[in-house]
What we know:
Layout: E1 5-9, H1 15-27, E2 30-33, H2 53-60, E3 78-84, H3 92-99, E4 107-113, H4 120-127, E5 134-135, E6 139-140, H5 147-157
Parallel strand pairs: 1-2, 1-3, 3-4, 4-5, 4-6
Helix pairs in contact: 1-5
Amino acid sequence: xxxxxxxxxxxxxxxxxxxxxxxxxxxxxxxxxxxxxxxxxxxxxxxxxxxxxxxxxxxxxxxxxxxxxxxxxxxxxxxxxxxxxxxxxxxxxxxxxxxxxxxxxxxxxxxxxxxxxxxxxxxxxxxxxxxxxxxxxxxxxxxxxxxxxxxxxxxxxxxx
Length: 160
């Protein structure tokens, strides 16, 4: 039985990208970077500025337009969706990504990077964006997680 796996991720600072690449390697998965059509600037990412782009997006739940689409999404059985935690949840671009595809019958596994926040609140919000998916328990992954630990997590999920 073949299990085609995709690791899709959004990253601004590089931590989530690094974790996503390592996860894709551990799972033997394809990799897809979720990028906004209009890239974020440093000023956009200033969460201390209530008028910065990200502050406004998170307050209004506005979803930035996504630059590219995953080709052949229907061919994947399992999709890992990675993101940094912003304001205790996933950035709104992730909501748009999940609403852009039919995840019926697919395993969807969220993973996140964060300095201090957990993933639980983000998971609850994301499940409503792709309600027909088979949601598997997500994980907050530190960028020092070993490849062997990632493989152990994949085995726990029944992916490997």
